[in-house]
TrEMBL record:
Record-given protein name: Sulfurtransferase
Biased composition (Low complexity): 217-237
Organism: Paraburkholderia ribeironis
A GO term, aspect molecular function: transferase activity
Residue ranges annotated for the Rhodanese domain, each copy included: 128-217
Region listing for Disordered, in residue ranges: 215-237
NCBIfam families registered for this protein in UniProt: HTH_metalloreg
SMART domains in alphabetical order: HTH_ARSR, RHOD
Length: 237
């Protein structure tokens, strides 16, 4: 086997590791913050055995790293920016070349919000001029693991009863886990229904971080699984 073929063989193993929707979802969760197997099981909706099996495939492909902490095995992305970037381009290829992907986007996402999303570059400018309030609608532990500078955290399930915490005279830009996360779409729809001027960020926190933009963290990057049972269905949306 020549050197090129040897490299292609290793790259093919990486590509194969991306070839399951469950593993893509696990990578999306790990792009928010490091997590234990138990936490990922609850968030993905898969069985513990299936979650462990998929994580081992990702580990063999060098897409995730592990660390033992007491009785827990903690997983994290092995190179956040590159993996998030690869997932981003995988989505762009699907949107451009696969009719079913476009159909789903139109039926489920674009029908909820036909307005153009705010780009990262535009949000940076608006933040510099104090023209917007940034709203992170992910669960609290994901926000604690990392978020946009100055962002407020109101999980989408709490938004209705916490509207009084948001300014009514400033545009609100909401974001969540990534371009296919419905939480930001739901939040923007709820805010507009109550008279707020609201838009969504084109991507999520992982893409913002991968672009080299500033982020903040509320707590040390410890694994917190206590919130799994309380965050409801938002964990899997």
């Amino acid at each position: 086997m020549g050197p090129k073929q040897a490299i292609f063989e290793r790259l093919a193993e990486i590509a194969q590791a991306f070839g399951h929707p469950g593993r893509l979802e696990l990578l999306e969760h790990l792009a928010q913050r490091e997590r234990s197997v138990e936490d990922l099981t609850a968030r993905s909706g898969m069985s513990f055995a299936n979650t462990s099996r998929h994580l081992q495939i990702l580990r063999r492909a060098r897409l995730v790293d592990t660390e033992r902490r007491g009785k827990n095995i903690v997983y994290r992305l092995a190179g956040d920016n590159e993996i998030v970037g690869l997932m981003k381009y995988l989505g762009l290829i699907g949107e451009r070349n696969v009719a079913e992907v476009n159909q789903t986007l139109n039926d489920y996402f674009h029908s909820r919000d036909s307005m153009e999303a705010v780009s990262r570059e535009e949000l940076v400018l608006r933040l510099a001029d104090n023209l917007v309030t940034v709203l992170d609608v992910r669960p609290q532990d994901e926000f604690a693991g990392g978020h946009l500078p100055g962002a407020r955290n109101i999980p989408v399930g709490e938004l209705e009863r916490r509207l009084n915490e948001l300014p009514s005279d400033t545009e609100i830009v909401a974001y969540c886990r990534g371009p296919y996360c419905v939480l930001a779409f739901e939040a923007v729809a709820a805010l507009r229904a109550k008279g707020f001027k609201a838009s969504r960020l084109e991507d999520g926190f992982p893409e913002w971080k991968a672009a080299g933009l500033a982020v903040e963290s509320s707590t040390p990057s410890s694994v917190r699984s206590s919130s799994v049972s309380t965050a409801g269905s938002a964990l899997r949306r």
